[in-house]
What we know:
The chain is α+β, with helices and mostly antiparallel strands. It is built from ten helices and 22 strands.
Amino acid sequence: MDHIYITQAVIEHFKCVLCDKHVFVSPITTKDDRSFKCGRCVCIKSDHPIQVHALEKLASYFKFPCCFEGCDETIPWGNVIEHERLCNYRVINCPSGHCKDRYSINKIVTHFDQKHKNYISSANQYRLNNSFGAHLRMFFYNQEPYLMIFYENKVRIYIGVYSVNAKGDNVPFQVQFNASSTNKSLIFRSNVVLFNDQEHCLNCLHHICNNNYHKYSSVDRNCDIKKNMPFVIDKTYLTMTLDSEIVCYIVKIMGEMKDRDQTFVKNLECPVCQCLMSGSIFSCRVGHAICEDCSDRLKACPLCAEPLTNMRCFALEGIAESLRLLCINKEKGCEFVGNVDQCKNHEKTCAAAKR
């Protein structure tokens, strides 16, 4: 059955008493059949205990105009929240923390250029030194803007990279930690997430946010935004692994990993068994890497004949853990994506392999 379009004039009679948007997001609740609360505001306490099932049933036959000015989309019941999450006209609170402006997400670059230019990096990476507290930066990859929020305390470093546009959340970002005194480094990867101003807030990190609609605001101190940031690492692990108390780190947007033929992935192949290395990875005295299974069977490096050691290659282990790979049966239709270990386990029983 085709959905019936509901006009803006009708929408005006069905506004949420809390957010002032149309109420057609489940659950729709009321207290007196005159004032309604929409499902967007379900996390906000209010005296609207009765769910209006009849109105929800009627709404399921309709399509609704987008609530954001400039967007011409009409959205069926049940798809409103997802559309509003992705809409390029969605209105956000400025993520800078101290700015009170609200504007359409597609104007964020212009706004930062005019009012927060010191937050912008023209490159696709940003170099950080020990910086306690919460911070925000904007940088670019393929001309698309990304926001980086990072937080550092005495114990851990937390980093999140967020795409402004929905099409930009399909790329990973890389964090490289460099020791100033030993020339050692560690590299990790994590996934870019679509920016949501209700979840990715600088003031929430500072525990000074009082916005009722923010998931981690100080209104509900039981939620901790840091636990849900894409990347976290213990500083003790860094200093022990890199043999250095002073560590700087570089956050960089990376291109999406397409397949296993790329040179970057080839470097993860064990020189003995030719399998991608994961788990514990060891090295010889010279530094050639070898997988754990082959290391147990051999005494000398197959590349240089130097003795194998018990030294771990933590950098390669971190890459194998955070790398995103397509299944080897992708040409047969398999869409599985995972790190090295996950792909190994999946490919043992991959249904596409039998096609």
